[in-house]
Design a protein that fits this description.
40% helix, Rossmann fold, elongated, UDP-N-acetylmuramoyl-L-alanine:D-glutamate ligase, single chain, 484 residues, binds potassium ion
Length: 484
Amino acid sequence: MLGVWTTEQVRAAEDRLLARTPDGALMRKAAFGVATVAAAMLRDLTGGTAGRRVTLLVGAGNNGGDALWAGATLARRAVAVTAVLLSPDRAHVEGLAAFRKAGGRVAADLGDPDLVIDGIVGLSARGPLRPAAAALVERVEVPILAVDLPSGVDPDTGAVDGPAVRADVTVTFGARKPVHVLNTAHCGEVRLVDLGLAPELPDPDLITLEADDVGFAWRVPGPSDDKYTQGVTGIAAGSSTYPGAAVLSTGAAVLATSGMVRYAGWAADHVRDRWPEVVATGTVEDAGRVQAWVVGPGLGTGQTGRDVLTAVFSDGVPTCVDADGITLLAATPALWDARDPDAPVVLTPHAGEFARIAEPLGITLGADRVAAARALAKRLDAVVLLKGNATVVAAPDGRTLVNAATSSWLATAGSGDVLTGLIGALLASGLDPWLAAGCAAWLHVRSAELAAHDAPVPASLIQQAIPAAIRAARNLVADGPVKP
Ligand SMILES: NC(=O)C1=CN([C@@H]2O[C@H](COP(=O)(O)OP(=O)(O)OC[C@H]3O[C@@H](n4cnc5c(N)ncnc54)[C@H](O)[C@@H]3O)[C@@H](O)[C@H]2O)[C@@H](O)CC1
Ligand SMILES: Nc1ncnc2c1ncn2[C@@H]1O[C@H](COP(=O)(O)OP(=O)(O)O)[C@@H](O)[C@H]1O
Ligand SMILES: [K+]
């Protein structure tokens, strides 16, 4: 489990650490980390470091200071380092002096570098790159190493509202900040330099699950288990228009549990044909006992859908509501009345569904996706899994995790149905609903990665990779503390 801290939390922790650290020591440690990664990148790119060319883009604050100190280290290793000062009068004084002393050169233009280091702006960044910086960044044709975070991207929300650096590698310090999990597309690979900040950090604002967390959470059947004791998943999905959603959701649950899966709905024959192990019936009332329901994928938004949702809620078990289920709740909030207040609900909206259900409640999906998901989770007393390249999972009590995609191959029709089946199986196994949603999101991304191999992949093949993704998680089982 990795922790993620807001810029405010990091600043406060840094201030406490700075108070007991010699002047400049932290910056030099941070910069040394940047120089080490830059040297490794140069070796990968060009086969060596001596005589290779690096250009620093240097802003007005300490982020520019980091870049200048890193440039000084590189220059001492015979790298030809050039600094472009975006605010020459405000460039970090000690950093610039060290840089010049080490043989670094100040220039007005990019030159012809092998690598660019982005020290334009860091933790204090607000808004997109300003025009002069944007013009320089636009002309970069070589890999970029971002210092702390890619400039132009909001540190706390990962939002981009204009020109911004798209880095290949981001070297951050002390603790991960929200941008590092909310916008991996602009950060590239994120490397963390340890500054000894951990003792000063409060509980993290966000967490991100790693393989071992998912493996640890996985319920493994024991000698006294049978098909019922491991949790039975119920799927209420599909319609004559969308039988495929039922097949995909049910199949994902089948592949993610060694217990039992029941299906209730119009597509019973389709489901049985594809998944003979499923106990399929026409209605929720006839389905028999389950420990969790999935309701919504391909259900339709008419009276049948309303009746199904009501029947599922009346069962009083943990329920994942997706797709048409969310649309139904948005259009007819009275459907919530059938919910047992003690039974957890997980909602899995994409951006459009989120707007549908949240806007009437006065919650808008703006740049701060974490805040929006948290607000909706609290308002509805439900876990909210907001889909996207970075999936945000917020619990009503404020616990929030982010699951970053490793590619965008998941953005394919039917992949959401696979996710809901995974969530259903994990809810039925008795896992905490927030963790169930988070583990499902992790497995979903991992399944897509295993199935896609850098090529388009249909949802049914993502589904087939679920066992391999579970194996990947379970190979690494070990419980551990939250790491910075
Ligand atoms: N505080 C510490 O102990 C440490 C800080 N470190 C570095 O210090 C950075 C933070 O430094 P600062 O607080 O000086 O601030 P920054 O270097 O992030 O920003 C400096 C100034 O840039 C301007 N600016 C804001 N948005 C801009 C934009 N979009 N385009 C152009 N200019 C913009 C602002 O006027 C801001 O004050 C961190 O990101 C990290 O790189 C590291 O050296 C590690 C130790
Ligand atoms: N750009 C993207 N990168 C990575 N994952 C994405 C991206 N866009 C969507 N996804 C993921 O793909 C899935 C799509 O789900 P959904 O929108 O419900 O599709 P469908 O209804 O067709 O199943 C979600 O899990 C979402 O997080
Ligand atoms: K930066």
